[in-house]
Amino acid sequence: MSDQVVRLPLPTDGPLEPPAEWERLRSRCPVAHATLPSGDEAIYLTRYDHVKGMLSDPRFVRPTAADNAARVAPEGVGGAAATGSTLSLPDRGEPHQRWRRRVGRYFTAKRMAALRPGMARLAGELIDTMVEQGAPADLRASLGFPLPVYVICDLLGVPAADRDRFSHWSDAFLSVTRYTAEEIQSAHEDFVAYMSAHIDAKRAAPADDILSMLIREGETEGGGLSDDELVATGMGLLVAGHETTANMIGKMVSMLLGERARWEKLLADPAVVRTAVEESLRFDTNLGFGLRRYVSEDIEIDGQAVPAGSTVVCSMPAANRDEQAFTGADDMDLSRSPNPHLTFGAGAHSCLGQALARTELQVVLETLLTRLPTLRLAVPVGELRKTEGLLVGGLREVPVAW
After folding, report:
1. What are 135-154's pLDDT values in tens digits?
2. Which of 16, 112, 187, 303 could be a cystine partner for 355, CB 3.0 to 4.6 Å?
3. 97-105: long-range pairs with CB below 8 Å, 24+
């Protein structure tokens, strides 16, 4: 482990470019010291085998306030995702796995496939509206944001008309430096009050949505989720169900349009859409600087001693560019298969909604290729602007024309 300390997030030469530092770290200093935006120090991992091993190892746990782990956000600032708040949800061991089993049954690939026709209709309607309003247009605002919002709102039974409020609450939830402590606290209180009232309404008049079904399960089978757990589940799913996918839609389209040959390849062979989505997920460098994990006992990584109580940050996008795991890792190969990328994590805490995200990304790409084959970026790639101050990465807007 080198004495040199890198500062996160690492700088890049462009909104879609990887940090130049990744290659040096993977080859010379795979177990590095890093300074987080808070000023606290952590260990930073960039190799595929180290990151995958850490995400799958039960000795690496999600940090909570009680763990005294290195903080992501500066003192007094940071949303629930940045501070490690569990929002009344079990995050370790068998209680966490029981929660995942209960909620995860509603996010299977089979269930998501059943939603696909509705998603395709919605994507078509959003694209039609964008075209009617004329070019240039912001693909993120016209399609990337509303589609996953409408889908997750429908799944949770919350009104999509409140989407602007959800967007603000989500940003506050994921804030690292964007909002003040007072703004985050206010947003959190409003979000909790909104979801609590929604749970009460679902208990009084259940419908055909995930939260109603979780409530029914608890009443008929016993041992269901408590009210606090239902509220936390609704909040967590609402944030995760639209924020990251909305960002990924914009980044995926930008990567594919940034080099015209990629878009032309998809137009010539639409069967490549599924592998192209997976490769976009792997190739994305603007994901966020990594996931925090707390070390519960003394361990070794790459022969380096890592004492209990350390905080480790694993960079999934850096691992996804590891030449030891992916031949031609810095090339975007739309036909790449297999593609064991780590964008959705690994192990017990892998992304619960990955089947939903994959389906939405595939539907968006299929619909755009069919409806707007002449789609192009309306600005040079280098002029795209990155989202700042949040735990997740994205683009502020994606200007397009056709």
Report:
1. 999 999 999 999 999 999 99
2. 112
3. 97/348, 99/225, 99/229, 99/233, 100/348, 100/352, 102/214, 102/217, 102/224, 102/225, 103/210, 103/214, 103/233, 103/237, 103/352, 104/352
